[in-house]
Amino acid sequence: MSADDKALAELYTIAERACAFAKKLGADQAEAQVQSGSELSVEIRLGEPELVHEASSKALGLRIFRDKRSALTYTSDFRPDALERFVRESVDLARLSEPDELNTLPPVEVLARQFPELELWDEATLSTTAAEAIDWAVRGERAARAFSDKITNSDGASYSRSAGAGVLVSTDGFRGGSRGTYQSLVVKPIADDADGKKRNGYWWTGDRWKDRLDAPEAVGEEAARRTLAKLGAEKIETGELPIVFDPDAGRAIVRLLFGVISGGAIYRKSSYLLDREGTEVASPLVTIVDDPLIKRAPGSRPFDGDGLPSRRNVVVDGGVLKTYMLDTYSARKLGRVSNGCAGRSVGGSPHVTTSNFILQAGTRKPAEIIGEVKRGLYVTDMMGFGFNAVTGDFSRGASGFLIEDGKLGRPVTEVTISANLDDILKRIDALGDDLDLRTSTAVPTMRVSRMMVAGK
Amino acid sequence: MSSEPLRAPFAPGGPTEIDAAIARRLLEEALARGGDRADLYFEWRAGADYVWEDHKVKTVGRGVTLGLGVRVLRGDATGYAYTEELTTEAMLQTARTASQIAAAGKSPAPVDIRAITVPSFYPVQVPSIETVPEEKLALLRRADAAAHAYDPRIAKVTVTFAEELKEILIVTSDGKLVRDRQPLMRFGVSAIAESNGKRQGGSSGGGGRLGMDYFETHTPEAHGREAARVATAMLDAVEAPAGTMEVVLAPGDSGILLHEAVGHGLEADFNRKQTSNYSGRVGQRVASELVTVIDDGTLSSTRGAINTDDEGNEGRRNVLIENGILVDYLHDELSAKHFTRGPSGNGRRQSFRHNPLPRMTNTLMGTGATDPGEIIASVKRGVYAKRFSGGQVNISNGDFVFSLTESYLIEDGKLTAPLKGVNLIGNGPDVLTKVSMVGNDFQLSDGIWTCGKDGQSVPVGVGTPTVKIAAITVGGTKA
Question: Does the beta-carbon distance from B399 to A397 stay under 8 Å?
Fold first, then answer.
């Protein structure tokens, strides 16, 4: 028995009992997901603790299938009599939905039987005490405030760690579990600008493995640099400009693409990329993979939310959309088979999610990408929800820096950038070599040849 | 499913009843290592949801959560822990974990715990979750039929109904014991229209702290038709303009502008920390004299109403800006203490897993005197904003955005072409000084909005009359 199996034994017992009981009460199929987790988060500000938050939790989600009807339920009440009542009510609840031939567990032969070791669990995570977490945050903030006397205030610094374990068990014989850890430090300095405005920035480090975090001092200094760079920010004139997205801002664009190629969006017709498989959806520079098998990466998982084996999917290859991302249900709705993209949260149905969703690096240095722009906008932050998945129309608030004669110039704020996502992706004309996998959606520096910037 | 009344297990007579004696023991444990104050937040929540898709009931879900959050306060610092297990040992352990914030020191002397009766701003006879589910399935079907019947170009309809009943018990070390039952329901329709290769979406929804009687005044058919109307109207949408121009906000949901432009900036945690643009500005002019902003947790049966906030203080109506002058912030207990004033009833939290923060309830702009037709007629070229998908603000620099899902071009005082989805961006303190006309047609939004802050979501409401902003940046694609 592996260390994981030992740690998961209690969760397996709960899940197996719930499934067996549901079957006994008349369910045709049942699937139980049990998750437990513990978290510690601290916030400090101006050197003093503001919040120490610590707890652990556990929840059971159950999916019941009976006469082609289904129910989804969850509980956190594990008292034996309460649990029994919960399963009984769940089985009964299924009668309310209407028969749906497609909504059943995946066929047994496609289920995962072996699980890769992905190194998602770091024992050192849980040993971090509140005092140590406070110390990390204090050091980060101190470095930011010491960086310049123009850093006049602080929105604080926070350190959090979490550890989670989960199992998925079905009456069809699926039995899988995994556990993982994560920790992060965020530092948020503030500087006073002219005319009473305040400028804020932040920087962070985070990883599944504690020894891969950046030093708190380095995080604090970078946070201070980013904050100071925003002093004097103002609107610019309205007009069409080339846009360079830094990797943090560019992620949001690529996330939008995921939203319109997920099987759920396709069968709901809530996507501008309906009937576009096999066609060009982005510039030839663009290759995007979804890869759950990268060791130690934030989005890795040993099996998907339907219990299918994890697999690497090339989603966009040289600008061509190779495949929609499918879970079992959306695949059936579209007359296809799943490509293992299901995710899952307790009490919810499986649904399509990304694992590590990566826009592959290009070959250019970010400085070169900026250097070729005579006048443009370098975007570091975006705000708002301005995206229509059905049409692809995109319009969001942005801030960053003006690019003038190939160099980053004065800071810019309070503008919007707009274009249709289909055009944005096709207008990508340079990708940086600066890809970094610290987030589960990852992109390098990316340049879009033109978008409308609305300002003055 | 039973349709008898649902009760929290910690309620009087429940299997894990919490009385004053148990609460007192837990509070003593929480303050055993020092600290200024402590409180207990017991929460039981039963939720259900129904999803209609492709002409049938696709999923029916149900769930229950139960837990206790314990908070210990020392100066501006908070120790917080929670448990989902209401055994004496687990609760005492949780109190001890929360107490780690307190360095050894003195704690307040225990006081008598007395039950406080809260007002009744949502007198629901029967929470919807206690009524038979079949009734709700029928609502989904009716909305779907109405949306399809509205126009043959409607290709897809999804209908959702979500309901919950939350029961909370708050006990504080200064002796308050407060109970509340908080029903909440939300109905929503989204429709997709298809025509000649073009597709567009529309949605409509509402609800509040109401029972099934909501549907007597807001029928599922009305929501179905409205979603279909927006989707079909947007099929003809044209590119929106880009640049700074006049914008007229329709009454109701446009209150989201207030929520973002000024509401968050007046939450007193930001002002305690001096991180908001509105820090230190009470008594100063922060908006045009036409602008009065009120946060009102007492509006009967609304999504944002609260009998008690999540710290045991009564929900209230608070005037934040009066005729352009900043009057007050929104407080939780921490910030109220910092500013040495009483509570404002705005300490809210998502659940027992979260510590309270200053939050909005229903955020409203006071009504004006101008006829709305006159406001639209006054605009030569601008945008009329009617429906929104949401907004966001940067508290420190004051920049905020909100995204329009239904808007129209105004040309020579008349509404003309529908516009594609567009984002507006402004700076809160600046935009509020540019409110140049306020209508006499105040409307409250139907109950759909949820506000997120520090990873915590709480239900809120907004409301406003027709409002003209003399200049704000419209993020279209057409120069």
Answer: yes
